[in-house]
Q: What sequence folds into this?
């Protein structure tokens, strides 16, 4: 199995990463653009684009920004509202797996930026029914989160006739180099279905066996092409116009707006996805089962490319976090109402035999020797030169909250 000589991605990446003749992956090649692009010119291009969407009459919002209690929401809203002077409507899908940190961050976001926000909370029993189906069909507990987060902003754009949606980083650009920054790729129904939703639209989940019918999937249903074209809805990505660096961005938001970080189970990243009990825990462990790697590899590759982390140090970190078991799986099993044995029976149907095999005791073993290490001459030849000393991600002081600290929070009081 080929492994990139610069980062740690393999050719088995689910987004079809390409490793070239020199042994460098497409994600690293596209990342090289970040050091060569004139980002000031890119920012002027964005300014010109945004000017065309400003509502001159003041009777509607200028754009929609999808947000959550983590990831780069603060940075996106800060950039679009405070730097470019837009009047955004914030839109958030309630993922149900909410942590107290995420609830507080979202409350703080809507307070500090003085923005209107619309939240969709789907009936919990419907979400559980859909999640049971996606575990069986796709080996995913997170399909409903991704589907909701990517469709609700489009539904609101159509309903309120707001043609511009501004997203953060396009994974196909920033992670795997599927597109160039110069392509200015925008959100499409096709990419969402094939990559974000693993090939399953909401309509594909209708199934008598799972008890899912049309009324259950209506909140996850993508608007028709006619509805989208009538309003002229388009979704742009901020990372095509600003040099994307999630760690630096979050640390700026901590200083400016008191963003709250938190320790996560299977990664050193204390910023991204701290609003979710499952993302860097049970969901990420499933990723290891299905694809042979977890978010730790994603985060290490990101930091290697941003020239803060050596490949050797990255290998140590991946090996440290790679097989950490989920800590919060009991929360999920209690929420969805199935036993741990039943859960792993369903997930095992999607286990990747390129990486896993049964041992003599009928337990699962990770048997693939990834052989991350390459000799020092090759490493020096292909590695990015470090430009910043590696430093830990900040852990902010926990705020006082009246919300429960040991359960999912469907609707919380926040700060």
A:
């Amino acid at each position: 199995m080929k492994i990139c000589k610069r980062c740690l991605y393999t050719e088995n990446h689910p987004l079809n990463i390409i490793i070239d003749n020199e042994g460098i992956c497409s994600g690293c090649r596209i990342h090289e653009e970040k050091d060569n692009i004139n980002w000031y010119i890119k920012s002027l291009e964005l300014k010109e684009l945004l000017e065309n969407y400003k509502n001159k009459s003041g009777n509607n919002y200028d754009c929609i920004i999808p947000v959550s209690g983590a990831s780069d929401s603060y940075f996106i809203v800060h950039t679009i509202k405070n730097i470019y002077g837009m009047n955004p409507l914030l839109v958030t899908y309630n993922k149900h797996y909410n942590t107290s940190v995420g609830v507080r961050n979202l409350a703080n976001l809507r307070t500090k930026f003085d923005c209107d926000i619309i939240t969709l909370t789907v009936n919990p029993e419907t979400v559980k029914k859909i999640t049971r189906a996606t575990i069986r069909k796709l080996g995913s507990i997170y399909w409903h989160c991704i589907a909701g987060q990517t469709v609700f902003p489009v539904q609101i754009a159509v309903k309120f006739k707001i043609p511009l949606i501004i997203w953060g980083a396009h994974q196909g650009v920033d992670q795997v180099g599927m597109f160039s920054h110069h392509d200015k790729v925008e959100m499409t129904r096709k990419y969402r279905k094939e990559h974000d939703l693993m090939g399953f639209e909401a309509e594909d989940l209708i199934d008598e066996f799972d008890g899912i019918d049309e009324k259950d999937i209506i909140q996850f249903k993508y608007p028709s092409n006619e509805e989208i074209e009538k309003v002229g809805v388009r979704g742009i990505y901020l990372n095509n116009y600003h040099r994307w660096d999630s760690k630096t961005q979050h640390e700026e938001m901590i200083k400016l707006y008191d963003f709250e970080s938190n320790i996560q189970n299977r990664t050193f990243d204390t910023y991204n996805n701290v609003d979710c009990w499952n993302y860097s825990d049970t969901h990420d462990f499933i990723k290891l089962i299905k694809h042979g790697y977890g978010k730790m590899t994603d985060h290490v590759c990101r930091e290697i490319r941003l020239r803060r982390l050596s490949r050797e140090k990255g290998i140590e970190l991946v090996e440290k976090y790679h097989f950490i078991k989920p800590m919060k799986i009991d929360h999920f099993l209690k929420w969805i109402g199935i036993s741990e044995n039943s859960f792993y029976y369903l997930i095992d149907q999607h286990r990747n035999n390129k990486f896993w095999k049964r041992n003599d005791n009928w337990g699962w073993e990770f048997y693939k020797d990834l052989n991350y290490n390459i000799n020092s001459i090759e490493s020096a030849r292909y590695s990015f030169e470090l430009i910043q000393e590696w430093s830990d991600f900040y852990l902010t002081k926990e705020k006082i909250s009246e919300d429960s600290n040991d359960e999912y929070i469907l609707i919380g009081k926040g700060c």
Remarks:
- The longest strand covers residues 88-93.
- The mean pLDDT is 93.
